[in-house]
Amino acid sequence: MRSLRSINLNFLMCEKVTDEGLKTVIKSLKRLSFLRTIWLNFGSCKITNEGLRNMSEDLRRLNLVTNISLNFNSCGEITDEGLKSITQSLETLTSLRSIGLIFFQCDNVTDESLKSISEGLTKLTSLHSISLDLMR
Hints:
Elements: E1 6-10, H1 19-29, E2 37-41, H2 49-59, E3 67-71, H3 80-90, E4 98-102, H4 111-121, E5 129-133
Parallel strand pairs: 1-2, 2-3, 3-4, 4-5
Helix pairs in contact: 1-2, 2-3, 3-4
């Protein structure tokens, strides 16, 4: 299992999954030293800014990841602050080639998040693809 290169976890509509569950998942990813692709869907879960802050701290340690997709659609407690913490961690992952961020129907995410994303991700020189969904 330590040699796993790709992981796809879908917790869509698991309304009892909280920041604690997100923390457990991210901490387990740190042990996968060959991991290159991460696809996580926490849409409609009970994830907050605190969960995203905790996640961002651990994401910084996954410096070999080349592709990442994070879906937090309909997580109404997430604000610009939470999205900024994710962006700050992603900008440290210099191997990233593809990023997907979905914060569809996160009503507390505003133009400030777009500013944070555009400023942070310009530091990634190997980035080839960005996909954003911030619709309300």
